[in-house]
Amino acid sequence: MPKRFVVAASEFPDLPRFPDGFELAEAMTVAAQQLHEKTSPHHTLRTAVRLAVHIMPGAEHAGISEIERGNKFRTLAWTDDVVRSAEARHGGREPHAHWDQLWHSPMARVTDSEGDDGWDVLSALGLRSALSLRLRADRRRLTVLTAYARKPGAFDEDAARIGRLFTAHVSIALDSATVREQLTEAMHTRDLIGQATGILMERQGIDAAAAFESLVRASQRENVKLRDLAREIVTAHNSA
């Protein structure tokens, strides 16, 4: 299960709110650099919501959520408690047309929650506008960045255009961080299995092929992942 983060929108003192002091290209360059500096998907998500309130015109709050078919909804990162409250209150309700639209469109927008039937969850928290943009999508799951504002009509066409440019950068950075994390885990797993194989070779007086085969058989017999079994062997050996 992905980790969840809450971050203060006041962070990022070195990045003024767009567009004051920044041209669009410069703002996107800074955002891309900061996103690609992160080494894990979790830190990329945290940075993305933090940047969104500076990059996207009209944005006061932001969150990144995962939406699954069947109305399963989970918030992964948020700038402050009002976002967490809004998205937590949405969970378990019938899907609103705003969220349903994201299965077919890269963007969905709420112009005024007080005038949009069914969006009492937002209006009760003083949130009048929302702009949601897809980061990832497959048949079962969406990952969505949503910007919120306390005034109606906060997100015009320029905000939507800039939001789509920004989320394109976020999506690329998130994919890159995911690949790095997977490669790191694969290397760590390989090292663990190598250490466990060496321990079995020493204990049982067998060669590497036989030791690895013994490890695989034990994994299947005990219904334990090879990586987890190797970790147990290495941990037990080091603590002996």
Automatic annotation (TrEMBL):
Keyword annotations of the record: Kinase, Transcription, Transcription regulation, Transferase
SUPFAM superfamilies: CheY-like (SSF52172), GAF domain-like (SSF55781)
Protein origin, superkingdom: Bacteria
One protein family per Pfam: GAF_2
The keyword Transcription regulation is assigned to this record: yes
Record SMART domains: ANTAR, GAF
Domain spans labelled ANTAR: 173-234
Keyword match Zinc-finger: no
Protein name as catalogued: Transcriptional regulator with GAF, ATPase, and Fis domain
Species for this entry: Streptomyces africanus
